[in-house]
Write a sequence for this structure.
């Protein structure tokens, strides 16, 4: 134990230094397996709900510490004494329904008796603030990851730019490459640079309270980027730094361009389809002997258009297979129409033209040709060639065939479609055994006049 004189001197010194503050302080006297309070200030005694006098001489066990807690503290205290080196650390505490964090400073006192001076500062508020900041930082990182945003900051006065890992990846800059405004400027697509710099300059001058947004391409033009930025001004109103985020919008730009093209293509198709329907209506009306005949013929041709539309819609109007178009138009006749040929892709306008041609041939065969007789058949054969496809329509088993006195609207329509949208030609032969049609279809290419 300390002598009463030494103890009194220590108490007087510590109280003069710490009793007016919230700092817990005092002196530990070390024993083999525990420690005792040799001196404490008022804040330490108040923490344990005692007076300083009640604390003197009490051990860790007397204060209710568990053997594990005592062993842990004794390890630190003896290390401090043996090495004669001050120790400083943070640790969590729980006492009398309270919990928090202390910053502990330990220092060995002079003399042969193992005594350690301690100062404890309650840093609970700071720790909670740090934890809140860490939590906020984690949430920010999660938000940036979820939105695929790159984060950056520009120190204007020192011309230093901080980019996080995603920003560096977006611009293709290595992790160790220092970044300044000159480098950033060189990473902009040349045609976009004036607009980006104009927005930045206006924000520095206070436009929109320093907020601005820019959309530009990467230097090689392969990537579209959108930056949202905020200029920070100092107390004198001078621009000090710029904070911002950046996101890759290449997919969005491509989607908007695709949408624009689709709308333009839709407008084009609607106009063409309306023109086609109008032409079919006019020509069918001219050739129809009666209103009933007009309705039946006109309806059949419109349905043929619709069937081919279904094929194209299933393929997003990219293309259609020749066999599928023919099969749709001849489906009603079952195995009396036999199809044989390889896969051959048609552009959308070619598919529509072929659908109408096959509809005309099928309708005529059902009215006047092979399909009007019980045993009549039609063979549709095609083969691929370097310049397109060659299609043969061969009827057999129907009434005797003979050439018409003059070509009707159906023949004129098929000829016009074959030489126009189909990009080929068509010929008709009329042997007694049945109609024979040779149709040549060009390769996919630009739409020809219909």
């Amino acid at each position: 134990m300390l002598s009463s004189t030494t103890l009194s001197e220590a108490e007087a010194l510590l109280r003069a230094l710490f009793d007016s503050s919230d700092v817990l302080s005092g002196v530990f006297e070390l024993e083999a397996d525990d420690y005792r309070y040799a001196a404490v200030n008022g804040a330490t005694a108040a923490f344990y709900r005692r007076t300083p006098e009640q604390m003197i001489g009490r051990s860790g066990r007397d204060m209710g510490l568990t053997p594990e807690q005592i062993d842990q503290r004794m390890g630190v205290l003896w290390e401090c004494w043996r090495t004669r080196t001050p120790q400083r650390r943070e640790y969590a505490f729980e006492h009398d329904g309270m919990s928090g964090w202390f910053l502990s400073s330990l220092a060995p006192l002079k003399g042969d008796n193992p005594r350690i001076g301690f100062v404890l500062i309650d840093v609970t508020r700071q720790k909670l603030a740090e934890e809140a900041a860490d939590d906020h930082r984690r949430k920010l990182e999660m938000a940036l990851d979820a939105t695929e945003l790159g984060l950056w900051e520009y120190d204007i006065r020192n011309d230093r730019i901080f980019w996080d890992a995603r920003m560096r990846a977006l611009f293709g800059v290595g992790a160790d490459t220092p970044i300044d405004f000159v480098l950033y400027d060189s990473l902009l697509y040349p045609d976009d640079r004036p607009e980006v710099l104009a927005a930045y300059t206006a924000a520095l001058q206070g436009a929109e309270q320093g907020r601005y947004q820019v959309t530009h391409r990467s230097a090689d033009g392969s990537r579209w980027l959108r930056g949202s930025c905020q200029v920070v001004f100092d107390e004198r109103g001078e621009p000090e730094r710029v904070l911002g985020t950046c996101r890759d919008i290449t997919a969005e730009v491509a989607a908007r361009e695709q949408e624009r093209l689709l709308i333009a293509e839709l407008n084009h198709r609607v106009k063409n389809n309306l023109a086609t329907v109008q032409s079919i209506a006019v020509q069918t009306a001219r050739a129809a002997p009666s209103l009933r005949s007009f309705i039946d013929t006109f309806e059949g041709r419109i349905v043929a258009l619709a069937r081919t539309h279904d094929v194209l819609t299933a393929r997003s109007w990219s293309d259609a297979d020749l066999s599928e178009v023919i099969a749709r138009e001849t489906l009603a006749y079952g195995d009396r129409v036999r199809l044989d040929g390889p896969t051959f892709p048609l552009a959308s306008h070619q598919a529509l033209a072929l659908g109408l041609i096959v509809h005309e041939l099928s309708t005529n065969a059902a009215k006047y040709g092979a399909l009007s007789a019980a045993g009549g058949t039609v063979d549709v054969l095609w083969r691929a060639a370097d310049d397109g496809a060659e299609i043969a329509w061969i009827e057999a088993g129907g009434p005797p065939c003979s050439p018409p006195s003059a070509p009707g609207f159906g023949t004129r329509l098929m000829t016009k479609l074959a030489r126009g949208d189909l990009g080929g030609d068509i010929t008709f032969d009329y042997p007694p055994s049945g109609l024979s049609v040779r149709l040549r279809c060009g390769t996919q290419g630009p739409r020809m006049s219909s």
Remarks:
- Residues 445-450 have pLDDT under 50 and may be disordered.
- The two ends are 114 Å apart (CA to CA).
- The first strand starts at residue 24 and ends at 30.
